[in-house]
Amino acid sequence: MTFDDQFSGLQHNPLKENSPTPLYYQLYSLLKQNILNGSLEDGTQLPTELGLSEKFHISRITAKRALDELAAEGLVARRRAKGTHVTHKYEPKPVKAPLVGMLQELEFMGKHSDAKVLEVILARPPTVIAQEFGLAEGETALKMTRVRSRDNEPFGYYTSWSVGLNQGTDKATLESLTRLEVFRKNGIEIKHVKQILSAKAATPEVAAELGVEAGFPLLSLTRRSFDENEKLVDYLHVRYHPGRFQYHMDLTPEHANR
User: Fold this and answer.
1) What is the layout of strands, in order, in the sheet containing 83-86?
2) Under a CB-based contact definition with an 8 Å cutoff, are residues 58 and 16 in contact?
3) What are the DSSP calls for the chain, one per residue?
4) Confidence category of residue 4, pLDDT binned at 50, 70, 90
């Protein structure tokens, strides 16, 4: 992808000649910020020194110094005849929020929607998930497949793998209690949760349960839940219908409560 494709929203002359900060450093800072925040992705080709000088109305020497500074920090690679490319891979930092409020929201949603259990079996998880649980060869986990609805409208397709659940895993109990209640019933308290949100197309199986066409875009959530010993006890993958479910977050900066 080119510089202009990813940096199209930038004003062509954001540098200030009357600033006490040198122009090369202004350009270096501007490019560095957009490399670090992912606006300029790994592999993006930056303009030549001449191209930058024309775009930002600066001298070619100024543009060269800015690029040299980025190269010295390992953010770009400069190769003769191949140009300058971004070499920093952006990795988003996880948002941290209080767990108590999130668990209350999950419990509220569980109590104010209907669950239909499609499957409850002991099985060997896929290799990657089994490794995350630290399962030995031949060890199994409890697999649950459920659909949640509100007012007879299905909004979520849930597939989960859990360990340590020996009570309350029959279909009737799983449809009457929230899963957090089932964990507590087994003496397990969730103390840490990691979540990843993305998008995924509906498979034929999921589409049939949610009443959409195969390929329909769904909100995808993967949630890993850990106990007080930081041991993974639950791996959950949910696909939500975006028109029937919204994921709200209300975050406060850490310093606001100090």
Assistant:
1) 45-46, 83-86, 76-79
2) no
3) -BHHHHSTTS-S----TTSSS-HHHHHHHHHHHHHHTTSS-TTPEEPPHHHHHHHHT--HHHHHHHHHHHHHTTSEEEETTTEEEE-PPP-PPPPP--HHHHHHHHHHHHHTSEEEEEEEEEEPPPHHHHHHHTPPTT--EEEEEEEEEETTEEEEEEEEEESS--SS-SHHHHHHS-HHHHHHHTT----EEEEEEEEEEPPHHHHHHHT--TT-EEEEEEEEEE-TT--EEEEEEEEE-TTT---------GGGG-
4) low
Q: Looking at residue 11, what is its pLDDT?
A: 45
pLDDT, one tens digit per residue, over 95-136 is: 565 665 666 777 777 788 899 999 999 999 999 999 999 999
- Neighbour-count burial for 162-189, b at 16+ CB within 10 Å, e otherwise: bbebeebbeeeebeebbbbbbbeeeebe
Q: What is the pLDDT of residue 1?
A: 54
Is residue 52 within 8 Å of residue 35, measured between CB atoms? no
Q: What is the mean pLDDT of residues 5-21?
A: 67
Q: What is the mean pLDDT of residues 19-45?
A: 88
Distance CA 211, CA 209 (A): 6
For 205-250, the pLDDT digits (tens) are: 999 999 999 999 999 999 999 999 999 999 999 999 998 887 666 6
- Give the whole-angstrom CA distance, residue 13 versus residue 57: 7
